[in-house]
Amino acid sequence: MSNPQFLVFSNPVEGREDEYNEWYDKVHLRDVCNVPGVAGAKRYELVPTGDETPAHSYLAVYDLDGDPNAVLAELMTRFGGPQMAMSEALDMATIGMSVWQQR
User: Fold this and answer.
1) 75 in helix, strand or coil?
2) pLDDT surpasses 60 at 28
3) What is the pLDDT of residue 1?
4) Spatial separation of the C-alpha atoms in residues 48 and 80, rounded to whole Å
5) Helix (H) or strand (E) holding 72
6) Residues 1, 97: contact at Cβ < 8 Å?
7) Can you tell me the mean pLDDT for 18-33?
8) Which secondary-structure segment (H or E) carries 6?
9) What is the rounded distance in angstroms from the CA atom of residue 5 to the CA atom of residue 65?
10) Cα–chain-centroid distance for residue 63?
């Protein structure tokens, strides 16, 4: 069975998409991958299809190596501090986070 994955669905603040992507790609992914138990990360951008639009435009998938509760606890202690500075271009009101395990 594979290790769990931490999925983060997010959106930029309207009009700040370039700033959001610059921060996420060059700062935030590195900061999250520096958390013990985070083994890697990939980002995805929504490809619009059909008439229905999902609530989120971006997805980050973090590979976890270890106890998900311990990894997320450490991530939350770093959140917003010097080890994990946040960007005002991230729309915090629309974030969705969950841990998934392959069946």
Assistant:
1) helix
2) yes
3) 53
4) 31
5) helix 68-78
6) no
7) 98
8) strand 5-10
9) 9
10) 11
Share of the chain above pLDDT 70, in %: 99
Q: How many angstroms separate the Cα of 73 from the Cα of each of 27, 36, 47, 93?
A: 20, 11, 32, 21
Q: What is the DSSP letter of 92?
A: G
Residues 6+ apart with CB under 8 A from 95: 8, 9, 10
Dist CA 47 CA 101 (whole Å): 24
pTM for this entry:
0.93
Is the Cβ–Cβ distance between 11 and 56 less than 8 Å? yes
Cα dist. 21→2, 12, 27, 59, 66 in Å?
Answer: 29, 8, 10, 12, 28
The encoded tokens of residue 66 equal 């270890």
Give 70-93 pLDDT, tens digit per residue.
Answer: 999 999 999 999 999 999 999 999
The pLDDT score that the predictor gives to residue 51 is: 81
Q: Tell me how crowded residue 6 is: count the other CB atoms within 10 A of its CB.
A: 22
